Amino acid sequence: MPRSKRDKKISLTKTDRKGLAWKQRIIEDIKFCVGKYPNIFVFQVQNMRNNLLKDLRQEWKRNSRFIFGKNRIMQIGLGRTKSEEVETDLHKLSKRLTGQVGLLFTEKSKEEVLEWAENYWAVEYARSGFKATETVVLPAGPLEEFAHSMEPHLRSLGMPTKLEKGIVTIYSDYTVCEEGKVLTPEQARILKLLGKPMAQFRLTMKCSWTKSGGFQLHVDDDINDETLADSAMEEDEAFEDNNSDDD
Q1: What are the residue ranges of CATH 3.90.105.20 in the chain?
Q2: What percent of the chain has pLDDT over 90?
Q3: Where is the Large ribosomal subunit protein uL10-like insertion domain (predicted)?
C-alpha cells in the first residue's frame, strides 16, 4: 500500500536562504535601474505596511520601480563612495539609505513625485509602540458587533466582558487607550477589532538624483557629503565577514 504523504515532515535545514546570489541580483537590478530611469529617490516609510507598498508597486509599474531591501545591499548597488558610484554623486543617495527606507526609480518628473508624496497617505491600524492619537473609552453595556464566540478572546485582551443572554457585554466602563500614550500589543489588537485606525502610511522623499540635475536634498540631515565612506565600507566588510551565515 502506498505511503501517506499527509504527515510528511520537511526539515527546516533544507529550506533555501537568501545568500550571495540573491544579494547580487538586487545589486544588478539597482545598476540596471540607474541606467534605465532618469530620476531616483530615497524615500522613508512611516508605519510600514507590506500590502500597501505592494499596491504602490502595482500602481507605478508602468514607468517606475520600487526597491525595498537591506540598506547595505542597496548601498553597494548605487556605490558607497565616489570611486564606487555608478553615476556622479550617487554615493550621496547611498549615504542616506539608513533606517526604514527604499529606492524609487521613475520616469516621472521630480516635481510630480514630490507633489504626489506630499499628498499621499493611507489610513492603517496602529501597532504596539505607536502613540495613541485619541482617547478611546467604551461605556458599560452590550457590544452587539461581536459574536458571542469572541467573548473569551476579548476578555483575554483585558476587557471586562461577560456574556448576557448570548450577547457580549462590558460590565464597567473601559478605557482602551489614552491620547499620547504608547499602545500595548493588547490595546493595538482591541483598536483593530473595534475598527479604529490611528496610523498613517506615508512616504517621505529624503533626497533625489536626476540625470539632468544631479543630487538634491529634500529633508535636512547632518550628513557630510564631502567625507568619503571608506571607514563605513571597512566596518561593513568586517560585519559581512563575521556574519556570513546570518543572511
Answers
A1: 136-194
A2: 57
A3: 126-195
Looking at residue 163, its amino acid is L
Region 141-145 average pLDDT: 92
Torsion of CA 229, 78, 70, 221, to 10 degrees: 50
Domain spanning 18-123+200-242: CATH superfamily: Ribosomal protein L10, N-terminal RNA-binding domain (3.30.70.1730)
pLDDT tens-digit map of 176-213 = 999 999 999 999 999 999 999 988 888 999 999 999 88
Q: 3-state DSSP call for residue 117?
A: helix
For 112, the grid coordinates are 510630480
> What's the grid cell of residue 53?
507598498
Name all contacts of 189-195 with Cβ < 8 Å and 24+ positions apart: 189/157, 190/154, 190/157, 190/158, 190/159, 191/125, 191/126, 191/136, 192/125, 193/146, 193/150, 193/154, 194/136, 194/138
Measured between alpha carbons, how far is 227 from 93 in angstroms, rounded to an integer?
13
Q: Domain 136-194 is classified in which CATH homologous superfamily?
A: Ribosomal protein L10, N-terminal fragment, domain II (3.90.105.20)
pTM > 0.90: yes or no: no
Give residue 181's pLDDT.
94
| pLDDT per residue as tens digits for the range 51-74 | 888 888 898 989 999 998 899 999
The angle, 0 to 180 degrees and rounded to 10, between the axes of the packed helices 71-78 and 20-36 is 50
Judge whether 153 and 161 are in contact, CB under 8 Å: no
